């Protein structure tokens, strides 16, 4: 069954990317930065707090054709023999919404529509081979576009973020990845791993010859997370390049911002 489915720290805002702009823009920039911080906190909460303890989802790609990508989801840590609701939160929406209801967990926790339970969804194309497996189809995903999905029933739920076309880099054990928290990459959210624990990690960015340097702090596990507001005054779209500096590893990447 196929179904369609500036710099911001997590605790503080840094306006490094806005230095040197006119005072008249400050209120607009402050509002944009506040909205960006809210989006970052909500996205991070989905990644780290949406799942109940012990519950998780593994996504396995089941097909890719004509720019469309589909996955099957395997849930662990939630009881079998119950019906669940599928919830999603697209980057085009401010809040989450119900995708559809009445799915069950089959073999290995596979999200399914078998009709075997009262009120369960039914896959009209089911066969003995797939047992009503649900294929979550993402139509022409943009580069770095995250798809946030949760399977739940009351207070029990498991959540995942799937990025079918990731923007990521790796160098000497360090990783860096960026996703768009808004459709046009107005807010770019970065995560990374492999950095020296509890240390400062420096970056350089460049867009339309605007260059900025900033630092963030790696946590005790060597992971980083921050956001950038890449838009440049006077431009509707462009490219931002970011590179790690001052360490033995130096992953770098670039991404296009503006209307997709």
Structural class: mainly beta
Helix and strand succession?
Answer: EEEHEEEEEEEEEEEEEEEE
Determine and state the CATH class of the largest domain. Mainly Beta
**Helix-residue proportion:** under 10%
Structural notes for this entry:
This protein is mostly beta strands. It folds into 2 domains: 6-46 and 166-257, Immunoglobulin-like, CATH 2.60.40; 52-162, Immunoglobulin-like (Sandwich), CATH 2.60.40. Helices cover 9% and strands 44% of the residues. The chain has 1 helix and 19 strands. It has one helix at 26-48; strands at 2-4, 7-8, 13-14, 56-65, 68-76, 84-89, 97-105, 111-112, 135-138, 147-153, 156-162, 167-171, 174-180, 188-193, 200-207, 210-217, 224-228, 238-245, 252-257. The chain has a 6-stranded antiparallel β-sheet, covered by helices on one side. The chain is elongated, with a radius of gyration of 20 Å.
